[in-house]
Amino acid sequence: MGNRVVVSVVGRDQIGIIARVTAILAQQQVNVLDISQTTMQELFTMIMVVDMEKCPVSLETLQEYLFVVEQEMGLKISLQHEDIFKVMHRL
Amino acid sequence: MSLALQEIIETIKMVQMENLDIRTLTMGINLHSCVDSNFLAMKQKVYDKITRSAERLAQVASQLEKEYGIPIINKRVAVSPVSSLLSSSSVEEAQDLAIILDLAAKEIGIDFIGGFSALVHKGITNGDEVLLSSLPSVLSKTERVCSSVSVATTKAGINMDAVYRMGYIIKETAEKTALQGGLGCAKLVVFCNPPEDNPFMAGAFHGAGEAEKVIHVGISGPGVVLNALKKWPDSDLTKIADVIKKTVFKITRAGQLIGKEAANRLSIPFGIVDLSLAPTNAHGDSVAEILEEMGLERCGTHGTTAALALLNDSVKKGGLMAADLAGGLSGAFIPVSEDNGMIRAVQDGALTLTKLEAMTCICSVGLDMIAIPGDTPAETIAGIIADESAIGMINRKTTAVRIIPVPGKVKGEMVEFGGLLGRAPVMEINHFSSEKFIKRGGRIPAPIQAFTN
Q1: Most exposed residue of A89, B32, B57, B63, measured as fewest CB within 10 angstroms of its CB?
Q2: Burial, B91: exposed, middle or buried (Cβ in 10 Å; 0-12, 13-18, 19+)?
Q3: In Å, how far are A9, A56, A75, B418 from A25, measured between CA atoms?
Q4: Which chain A residues have a beta carbon less than 8 Å from that of B1?
Q5: Mean pLDDT (whole number) for A5-24
Q6: Cβ A90–B2 below 8 Å, yes or no?
Q7: Whose CA is closest to B328, among B46, B136, B76?
Q8: Which of A62, A67, A84, A86 to mutate to test the interface with B (most CBs of B within 10 A)?
Q9: Are A57 and A3 in contact (CB under 8 A)?
Q10: ipTM of this complex > 0.95?
């Protein structure tokens, strides 16, 4: 398995979502490779592709760190290994 | 290769809004190395082998759920048909062994353990006899042990003595679990042509042709297919078939990735992907609603069998292309109690037992999770099993019966099983007797289709 992970953030639009999420990623040495935003069913939706190569903690632990932001800002943040997207949509 | 935003969003929607999940990760374990003339030693070996082999199954499943963001609903173990271990045991010992299986399942934190099974389609061995006699008490005393009995195959014909026997076993099991609405019967399947690599309960067992240990995965996702069809409200059925194929391809790919990765981490060979649409009581996760989305006012009306044929075939076509090795039951499941659309169709009078029987010529299993009145005679239940076996035997397909004569309940009443087993309205049965036919016993010989050598 490689190190690339898809981070998706869905929730009510508000100031500081990107700042709070990326701050945690930066603290854990996670590099953002790609970032895009769209609205999905009237919700703020941000999707990032990140590289966890230098990240000292596991995917599970990183998810726990992000849980704090999830709770405080009423968001749903998911981390998923990129392989799942690759196998589902590409031959 | 960069990922397209649209693809990412589609996957996230499938999981978060359309109930995409991996229904089951099942480890098959061969128990033949545990056979011992000393029963206590055998019991210990069985417990040790299961708990050692599947020690990390639940943990690995939970890791994978987190890493890929797709829920894995059930973790299960399927063992060699237990009757093959019981050739010199007593009925009490068979019950003891079932209790050990139950304990092992609890110890490793899995939902169900399958394989308290016997294959009696051609004849009944001492071990089979002991297992069958122990069934009602085993299914009432254990929580997670599932059982299946093969009473017919295309090659062997139908063992009508075994069919008759199963009628009584089902009745007795229902009575012994009367306080829970006959729940014991939900853990018992009667098969024709059972697949030996099936990860779905209650019918999973580790077949004689399988490796020492193996990981199978059962996919799901009726909700995802339903939502895909909603985007094509006016398309013709050729297009509908294509949409289902493409959707199931994606679902299967996700299942295979997780199954293979689990096998990898557990250092066990990967077996098959069971390409199945298995409904749950979650909103929109219904096979019946897919059929209704195609244009039927209620599942069960005229056209339902044709719609199910289209669905089942498209599921297979899409899934086969996506999977390295497919197997198991593969198709659409049509259990009544686990599918909100089916429940509503029965309540509205659109779906009857006769129509369900016709639908089983097309679906992947058979008459599944059907509640009938508690006073149904054992001979009538045997008649239902015989009919279903005949459909499987003649058409060279798997069919099965998982039926619950709910003690004290009559047509139209509801029975609640809870959890994944759901709730079912008690269905009407035909009141004319099958007694004389069933009591004749003997075997219905293998049909002409069997002679393909």
Answers
A1: B32
A2: middle
A3: 13, 11, 16, 41
A4: 86, 90
A5: 92
A6: no
A7: B76
A8: A84
A9: no
A10: no
